[in-house]
Amino acid sequence: MAEHPELVAEMPAVARLSTPERLKHAQKRRAQQLKKWAQAEKEPQGSKVGADRKKRRRKSDGNTKRVTFPASVQLLEAAARHDAEEVRHFLASGISPDLCNEDGLTALHQCCIDDAGAVVPVLLDAGADVNARDSELWTPLHAAATCGHLRLVQLLIQRGADLLATNSDGNMPYDLCEDEVTLDCLESAMAEQGITQEKIEEARGATEREMMVEIRQLVEAGADLDVPRGHGATLLHIAAANGYMEAAELLLEHRASIGSRDEDGWQPLHAAACWGQVQLVELLVAHGADLNGKSVLDETPLDVCGDEEVRAKLLELKHKHEAVMRSHHRHKSLLQRRTSSTGSRGKVVRRVSVSERSSLYRREHEREAIVWQRAARRDSADDDDDHQTDAELQHRAATDPPASSPPRNGSALCAHGPGTGATVHPVPDPAPRHHLPATLPDLKRHRAATKLQHPPGGDPAAPIGGGDTGGTGVTGGAGDGTGEPPLLKLTAPAEEPPAQKQRCCKVM
Q: Mean per-residue pLDDT for 303-317?
């Protein structure tokens, strides 16, 4: 038998072996251990030690305690030794063939693992459950198929083993079988029983459907979905570990806690990462699962993940989450800086804006005044307020009797009375010629002043008369019945001729 250091040294090599090879290696080590123990018992030193123990027992006062084992342990130990007679003796004494250890392992499971072909019929004849399940829902057929024990697989199928039984990972016996001959036997049996792909998929989803029925019942009753179950795991832990996508979505829809922890401090994301459920990992992260959450042993979901695909997905999601958080922090700090600077900078911005608006208004007024000046030059083409052209006004001025004195530039003419003789009231210019208005506001004020100085009792039907008065001043109204003062038109000032060049020397 190998010593402990030797066993520790060969652990990496054993981990690389397939499941059947590991089982064979374990059986070989167990056989070596039993052989060494038998040799030790046969040695004289061993018998001497046994005699000394008997002598000490005789010298004692008789209050010694005998070591006893439970019936399940005795049955499993006898089955592991392939002792069919002792197993038959235990069963005949009334021990149940379905007794199991703390892992749910029965004697039939153990015999299917060890290929104890002589003990399996004894257990089945005694009424052992051919579809008994351990803590991970493995049946004896799972164990025999995994180990590639063809004779035991055939025997279990003849005794009614369920070919569609699924373990906690959702695997059926044929999913775990690596031996080609045994796999052919399983597939042939499935074909004989009429098992199709539809039935296989239905059997795989049976557990999830049962779980969803339970979740809906809890929701209707208003119960807490985060009540811990075995080992402190919640329903979301179970769904995440088994890859139950629909059940997990239903739990998250009804506010199941994504941060609940089991006895080991694992969150549902730990379970999904450990069991390689990529879709559940994405779903939990999308609902806010903590990628850096730590268990009791300070393990993150990335630490407990053994599948390379899931590991790559976790790293990708972690990098995306960190990038989003950095962007959020930058945006938040920028908003804080803007808020802190509002009190000092806002007033300056407002003052500058007011001054800019004032300058803008002033420039607009100047541009409008220039437009008015240019419009006065095109009086011959434009209409007056009464829609009469300059030619019509000149014709009327020729037919009307001349006034005693021509009006001055910038004066207003008002006609009173229905007769042919018109009384003319001169209106003085509101400003001398060298102070004529030059901008639109000044023109408006000039027009308002003219209205105030207009006599209130005029004849609305009498023509105001007058054509173009020349220069900047008043153009007569057209007698439109409103009594409005004449229009004000602004003409551009006379352009001065350019100064003649003066000779600076006799050369020019």
A: 86
- Return d(Cα 303, Cα 298) in angstroms, integer: 9
pLDDT tens for residues 189-222? 999 999 998 889 888 888 888 899 999 999 999 9
pLDDT digits over 436-471, tens only? 555 667 777 777 777 666 554 444 444 444 444 444
24-73 per-position pLDDT tens digit: 888 888 888 888 888 877 765 555 556 666 666 655 555 556 777 788 78
Identify the CATH class of 206-332: mainly alpha
User: 390 and 371 in contact (C-beta within 8 Å)?
Assistant: no
Instruction: Work out the number of other CB atoms within 10 angstroms of the CB of residue 207.
Output: 17
Please say if the pLDDT value at position 16 is more than 80: yes
Q: Which residue has the tokens 């609940």?
A: 260
Task: Judge if 70-198 and 206-332 fold alike in CATH terms.
Answer: yes
The rounded distance, in Å, linking the Cα atoms of 184 and 150 is: 10
CB 359 within 8 A of CB 430: no
The domains of the chain are located at 70-198, 206-332, 344-397
Query: Strand pairing partners for 106?
Result: 100
Q: What is 90-137 written as a DSSP string? A: HHHTT--TT-B-TT--BHHHHHHHHT-TTTHHHHHHTT--TT---TT-
Residues 500, 505, 506, 508: is their CA dihedral positive or negative?
negative
Distance CA 340, CA 192 (A): 79
DSSP-assigned beta bridge partners for residue 473:
489
Alpha helices in 194-274 (DSSP H): 197-204, 206-221, 235-242, 245-253, 268-274
- Name the more confident of 362 and 176: 176
